[in-house]
Amino acid sequence: MPEEKEDKGFKVIDRRGQEPPSPPSPEKTSSGATAGQGPPLPGEVPPTDGNQPPPLGVKEGKGREEARSSALGGPRFLDLVQSLQVGAMAGLGMLQGPDGKRPPADLPAAKDAIDLLGILQEKTKGNLTKEEEEVLREGLYHLRMGYMAMINAPPAGRKKEGDPR
User: Fold this and answer.
1) What contacts 41, CB < 8 A, 6 or more positions away?
2) Which single residue of 22, 49, 63, 77 has CA 20 to 30 Å from 122?
């Protein structure tokens, strides 16, 4: 007699708008460590007892909350800067496409992205970390130099005036 196979599909439960379940309360072991917990996950800020300094790169107060949110995959300031930089690089024709060819330059789009980075630099002056300030400054410098090189380059197929070739 043939056996009937049950459909072992999956079940979808919509939990949008519901409170997440609270984690079980940790139990202390005889050594004082919390049972069931290993080392902190990457980017997770371990609790301190007040006598220990915070982990490297984590500041007290507001900075600790920012560190937690970025560890959860939230966007950071450098993500915005790098997104605009890649857009400018694409507009300058500096990026290769999947086929290995470079797309044609779109100088107005590149100029817009560079101008936005300049506005961002001006409006955030004094409010950035050293790393953020350096990435913004250096990237903006190189993009501006690339833009100027594209503007001053002779059009393809034409010789520059005074060029004997």
Assistant:
1) 71
2) 63
